[in-house]
UniProtKB/TrEMBL annotation:
Residues 1-12 have a biased composition (Basic and acidic residues). This is Uncharacterized protein. Belongs to the asaB hydroxylase/desaturase family. InterPro entries: AsaB-like. The lineage of its organism: Eukaryota, Fungi, Dikarya, Ascomycota, Pezizomycotina. Residues 1-25 are annotated as: Disordered.
Length: 155
């Protein structure tokens, strides 16, 4: 995520070469609503990996205070986590374990999106982070009930 560790060059990693290959998952869930967490993570990850430390669900974007129903798609081009946000995110969600885990040669944040119905409109696209400079994004506040984060959008 920007830093070289133990002789590796960050530029040698890209989504297709470093495990970021999109995977199509078919779910048996007919409808996903409310605050219920459907445990799809083990299926999506594909089983235990020797280097996998933990699967952690950190943001479940289902609804907001005072909003009825589920949230629709975000239509603007954006980045969920920037390279500069990776270490602070690790500290936020891993707590006391963060320093020990971040001292390892590499760490990776993997996003999972789980629509539980067929997508027939609002197409979804993913790109390799190395293809867009962080300076091309505009930092926009993303307000949560207990904190304010940021989302990078292309203006």
């Amino acid at each position: 995520m920007g830093a070289d560790h133990e002789g590796t060059k960050e530029s040698d990693y890209s989504a297709p070469r470093a495990g970021g290959k999109p995977k199509e998952i078919h779910t048996t869930v007919r409808y996903y609503g409310g605050d219920r967490n459907v445990p799809l993570e083990p299926t999506i990850i594909g089983g235990p990996k020797p280097s996998l430390i933990r699967v952690l669900m950190h943001t479940n974007r289902v609804s907001q205070v005072g909003q009825k129903g589920t949230l629709g798609p975000i239509y603007n081009v954006h980045v969920d986590q920037s390279a500069s946000a990776a270490v602070p995110l690790a500290h936020r969600w891993l707590g006391d374990e963060a320093e020990e885990l971040l001292a390892k040669p590499r760490f990776q944040i993997i996003n999972m999106w789980r629509p539980c119905k067929p997508i027939t409109r609002d197409p979804f696209a993913v790109t390799d982070a190395n293809t867009v400079a962080e300076s091309d994004y505009i930092k926009v506040p993303f307000i949560y009930p207990d904190r304010t984060g940021a989302c990078g959008v292309i203006g």
